[in-house]
Predict the structure of Phosphonate ABC transporter substrate-binding protein.
Amino acid sequence: MLKKTLLAATALLALAGGAAAQDIKEFRVGILGGENEADRLRNYACLADHLKETFGFEKVSLFPAADYDGVIQGLLGGTLDFAELGASGYAGTVIKDPKAVTPILTTQQTDGSTGYYSIGLALKSSGIKTITDAKGKKLGYADPDSTSGYLVPLTQIPKTTGMPNDKFFASTQFNGGHENNLLAAYDGKVDVAVDDSSGLGDFKDGFTSGTFRKEVDKGAVDPNKLVEVWRSPLIPNGPLVVRNALGTEWQAKLTDFFLKLPTTDAKCFSAIEGGDFKGYVKVTPDFYNAVIDVRRAAIGG
C-alpha cells in the first residue's frame, strides 16, 4: 500500500512539474544595447517566432534595452527571463546576485574557438597605425558593462602603452554602445574606437562576426577607410543566460532549443548573433571566473 502511495505521489509530482513547465504565458527576452533598436528587433523577430511555436507561449516579448545595464537589471529584477550577455555583463550580474541567472551556452567561432577579441579601429587617414600612435588622442568606449568595449581595453591597453588610459589618451568617452562607438571613430568624433570582433577572416569583410562585420554588411562603414590598431588577448564569448526562477527544466529545454537553432534556421541564428559562427556549445559558470575576478578588481559590480 505504501509503495502504491509513493508511486502515485511521484506521478502527481511529475505531472505537476510538467504542467509548471508550460505555465509561462509570456517569455521575455532581453537584447543588449549596442546596435540601433530597429535592427535589433528585426534580427530577433525570427527567434521570437521560433520560441512561440516551439513552446506554445502566448507571447514572446523582446526588450531592446538602451544600454547593457538595462538587461542586467531586468534579469536581476525578474522582469526578463532570458538574454545573451557579454562576459563582463554576466560578471556584473553574478557579482550583484550569484543566484540570479545560469549560463547555459556560448557561441563557437568558425574555427571552433569560444573566444573573441576587442579590437581598436581608427581611420586610415588619421595616420594612427598602432595604439601607441594614439597618445594624446581620443579613445572611444562602447558601454560601461561591455567586455570588449570597456573592461578589456581598460585593463589591457595599458600593458602596451605603459600608462593608464586616462593618462595616455587626451580623453576617453562612452559612446552609447558598440555601433555608435565604431561610427564615432568613422566620423572622426574619436580617434580610436574599441569594439568586439571575431578577428577571423578578412578585414575587408569586417572579419567573420562582431560589430565591425555588422556595420560593413549594412554598408554603414567602408573597411578600406579603417585600420586595426590594437587587438586584445582572447576573451571568452558571452553566455546565453536563463533566470534561475524558471527552474532547471526550462534551462534544459532552452539549451536543447538553442543547440538546434543553427541547424533548424541558420539564417535566424546568423541574424541574432551578427555574423558567421559554427554554433552554440554548453558552458558552465566556471568558464567566466577569470572575467569575474578582473571585473571585481577593476570596476566592481
About this structure: Residues 1-22 have pLDDT under 50 and may be disordered.
